[in-house]
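Chapter review: from sequence to fold.
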Amino acid sequence: MKKDKNFYKKVIEALLHCAGRSLTPSEISRICDNLSISEVQQILKDLIKEYAERGIRIAEVAEGYRIETIPEVAEYIKKLIKPKKFKWTKSLLETLAIIAYFQPLTRAEISAKRGGIDVSSSLRVLLENNFIEVIGRKPVPGRPVLYSTTKFFLEYFGLKSLKDLPPIEELKNLYELE
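The token string follows.
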């Protein structure tokens, strides 16, 4: 069977549908018989255009692509899947923001940036929900663990990479307004 662009378009669409996470162009290329990265990217561009007026879209997140629902239909999707309740507290958001902007960090460094507040419970919740991970140990006495954000963090917040975080000055201004 001859495998042309239309065939690979179907394959890539199916991969994105089944993956449940973002896929990088290089992952897609490997799966698709080493199709060139430029061909994969062109097919992705074509699919993005085709999905433009639908209830789902192909979005570029976490340095890859995924299929996701459009924000306008979120309330109906919630009725169907009844997502697990996860409550963002100020403490969780502050801890996650510190890690996102200054990673990798130890628990003591995170606590110091939060003004000496204990962050143990926030770290536990963020770890359990896969927003952060332990990426190693700092080469200092006691060898404390280092925390960093995960690919899931990027996917959850719809970011292509950490470079897409808003400038830290914006966050400081918001915090001062409170």
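Two observations follow directly from the output. The first strand starts at residue 56 and ends at 61. DSSP finds nine helices and four strands in the chain.
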